[in-house]
């Protein structure tokens, strides 16, 4: 069965079909299972296990992606970035973005965005423990609506640098460039972009088969991209050292696994502006996001 290209994980359900389809696999719940979570159902587990038979490293890749997210958020927060928009946030995990950021900068503001009503219900129940956190149900293919939403305007100061975080989500969009560019266009100078993205570079045939199975069973197409294509998504944001790499390699303190094993690339970039005059940190200003060794 072919999957129409126009479908995505972010298609907003009609009012008469808004009920959760728990008998059909869901993107966020499959990822939750791969991470070892409990917020998943039989259909999600069945598809995840079938994918694992094709790609035994899929669960490892999911964990590597979460670890990469933590390292990327830490490096930004340590430099004073206090605003984060987590686009395609997925179900709450053991380490959520606002808690990671709060360990490294004072009073971070975080907006969680997802198109899945179950994700947003969980986020509102478990994550919203203060006024500096929000949850927005939105379609990533409608970035202008996200940028102009009341929750974005309430939480995110347009004059202060913001980190736009796309963690393992852009591979569900046929045209991620438009989404990234539209949201980046409204970000203040000194803002940052974090991307992790599925790739077939390490296992082309197996990834293609897993993507086919995913699309046919879940109804959501999956578009793995190569490292060069993923780097192009950064647009005016310059990927900082070590660039777009396997996520397990990015700022990892021990010897990384062979790059040939990777299923997920990632990187962090900035727009090259000096953000020193915007926002605040424990030292009173956001430090420039210079390349680090």
Key words describing this protein structure:
293 residues, alpha/beta, 8-stranded mixed β-sheet, 10 helices, 8 strands, 34% helix, disordered N terminus, disordered C terminus
Can you walk through the features of this model?
There is one protein chain. Helix content is 34%, strand content 14%. It has helices spanning 27-34, 42-54, 58-78, 97-102, 117-126, 143-147, 150-155, 176-185, 204-218, 227-232, and strands at residues 83-87, 109-114, 133-137, 162-167, 192-198, 238-239, 245-246, 264-270. Residues 1-18 and 274-293 have low confidence and may be disordered. By secondary structure, the protein is α/β, with parallel strands linked by helices. Strands 1, 2, 3, 4, 5, 6, 7 and 8 form an 8-stranded mixed sheet that branches. It is globular, with a radius of gyration of 18 Å.
Fraction of residues in helix: 25-40%
Distance from first to last alpha carbon? 47 Å
> Which spans of ≥5 residues are poorly predicted at pLDDT below 50?
1-18, 274-293
Beta-strand portion reads 5-15%
Average pLDDT figure: 84
Shape: globular
Strand count? 8
Radius of gyration, Cα only, in angstroms? 18 Å
**Strand-and-helix sequence, N→C?**
HHHEHEHEHHEHEHHEEE
Secondary-structure class: alpha/beta
**What does the largest sheet look like?**
8 strands, mixed
Number of helices: 10
């Amino acid at each position: 069965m072919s999957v129409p290209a126009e479908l995505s994980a972010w298609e907003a359900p009609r009012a008469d079909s808004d009920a959760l389809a728990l008998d059909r696999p869901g993107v966020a719940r499959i990822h939750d299972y791969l991470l070892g979570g409990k917020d998943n159902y039989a259909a999600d587990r069945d598809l995840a296990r079938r994918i694992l038979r094709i790609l035994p490293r899929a669960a490892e890749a999911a964990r590597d992606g979460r670890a990469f997210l933590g390292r990327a958020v830490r490096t930004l927060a340590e430099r004073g970035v206090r605003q984060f928009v987590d686009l395609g946030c997925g179900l709450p995990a053991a380490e959520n973005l606002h808690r990671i950021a709060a360990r490294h900068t004072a009073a971070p503001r975080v907006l969680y965005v997802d198109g899945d009503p179950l994700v947003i219900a969980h986020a509102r129940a478990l994550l919203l423990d203060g006024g500096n956190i929000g949850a927005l149900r939105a379609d990533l293919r409608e970035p202008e609506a996200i940028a102009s939403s009341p929750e974005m305007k309430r939480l995110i100061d347009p004059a202060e640098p913001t980190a736009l975080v796309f963690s393992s989500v852009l591979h569900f969009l046929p045209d991620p460039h438009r989404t990234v560019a539209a949201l980046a266009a409204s970000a203040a100078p000194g803002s940052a972009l974090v991307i992790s993205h599925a790739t077939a570079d390490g296992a082309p045939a197996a990834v293609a088969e897993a993507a086919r199975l995913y699309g046919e069973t879940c109804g959501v197409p999956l578009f793995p991209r190569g490292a060069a294509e993923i780097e192009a998504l950064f647009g005016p944001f310059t990927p900082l050292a070590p660039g777009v790499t396997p996520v397990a390699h990015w700022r990892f303190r021990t010897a990384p696994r062979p790059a040939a094993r990777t299923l997920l690339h990632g990187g962090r970039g900035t727009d090259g502006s000096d953000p020193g005059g915007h926002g605040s940190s424990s030292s009173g200003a956001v430090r420039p996001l210079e390349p680090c060794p």
